Amino acid sequence: MSTDKVALLIGNLSYRNHPKLKAPMVDVYDLTNLLRQLNFKVVSLLDLTESEMRNAVDEFLLLLDKGVYGLLYYAGHGYENYGNSFMVPVDAPNPYRSANCLCVQSILKLMQEKETGLNVFLLDMCRKRNVYDDIIPNVEALRVTANIVFGYATCQDAEAFELNSTGFTNGVFIKFLKKRLLEDEKITVLLDKVAEDMGTFDPTKGKQALEIRSSLSEKRALTDPIQSSGCSEEIMARNLQWEKAHELPESMCLEFDCGVQIKLGFAAEFSNVMVIYTSIVKKPEDMTSCEAYVTNFTPDLDVDPKETNKVTPEETGSYLLSKSLPEHCLYTRLSSLQKLKGQLSFTVCLQGKFNSMDDLVDWRTEVNIGKPLIAKLDIHRMVRRNSCLQTCHMPHSPSHSPTHSPSHSPGVETRYHQHYPQHYQNSYLGVYHHNHPLMTMGGTMPVDNECCMYSNLSSYNQEGEPYAVSASRVNIPIETTADINELQTSFIDSLEINNRYL
């Protein structure tokens, strides 16, 4: 039994100095829906910088207590050195080192101090060796405790993939995990089934396999009921903290002097992503046309006016919420709410035309909705004194990142084509809802033969059946080996090498 269930889900996809990813957004969204069905308090965040990730972990730790089930899911670029796993923030330099990333084992150490009932880490990232990072992290010794489960999306020294297509889809791990997550099974038994399912998937067979590490001494399942001993101060504080980070502004009706009424509504896509929608609910009979839109947002969010007030949610980038939003509105998607330092204000503009007038007339009103969702927690601040950073002492400060190698351009195009020393070559809220080249979710990736080539493969639908997709959209990193003909016959009739990253 658990005293509570809490999950932190982080999906990093819009990297500044490394290849961008697509699947983490869908993966976090789907996993959020499923975990909420299991009564988890879920915080779901996209595209966090290093300081934002550390502060988000701090907030996550505040939700933990004795007997609580804690789950951390991360999807994005990552690597593994000396048995320690590192999650790569979106602002990590190129190349990055441990000082620029978050050490998972350091987070586990802090979770152990909370005497949690179950610690689950689902790491959907590459586990390749980072050749730029030869520092052994000074992670404080972990306590010998039971009920720790690691579900690695791929094996040690291997890559994790996401499935790209013309639409949005899951990474390989979540594609199979989401089919099993609600099953009433011991967590390790559930993950074993996922591993077996992944082993039948032809596109990644021999490239990606789920690895499970566990110290379970009791039968623990994600479906376990919550049995809290009364309404203690700790439980009340925990609930308040979670609710604080998921409070949406109330819908409002704005009335203009001309007689027009506008409805302003809000929906949460993630804990740090919100959609604003506007619609005309009333207008005078002598007004031939009118339109309401939002503009002049608080500068903290850096909102592009060209991406606001769209006719469909999809045009704003909100593909996952589209079926849950009201129709016949104008939609604006606000991401990165964690960057909001003050209250969120914007202008609602009304533009209309009357029968008796040829010119359009404008009306404006200012709206302030405070700090919505995760913005209330101020995780934009610099790393706090008791941050998870302090448990992993690094030799140099994150604010003084190492310079680039003279022979290595910091551009994305060269990330996968570096020459390595010989000894490295074989190492290595709201509302929530929900086809494929394979893209690696690692960062620095040494491979055999000192290069990584990309081949065009057929894309597969959700059932794993192949369907046609243009060669320019599908790229699967593979090692250049003598078995290239075998790969051709296993996956496609003809294999075309695409060197667009060279």
From TrEMBL:
The lineage of its organism: Eukaryota, Metazoa, Chordata, Craniata, Vertebrata. It comes from Acipenser ruthenus. Residues 3-81 form the Caspase family p20 domain. SUPFAM superfamilies: Caspase-like (SSF52129). GO terms for biological process: proteolysis. Pfam families: MALT1_Ig, Peptidase_C14. This is Mucosa-associated lymphoid tissue lymphoma translocation protein 1. GO terms for molecular function: cysteine-type endopeptidase activity. It comes from the Eukaryota.
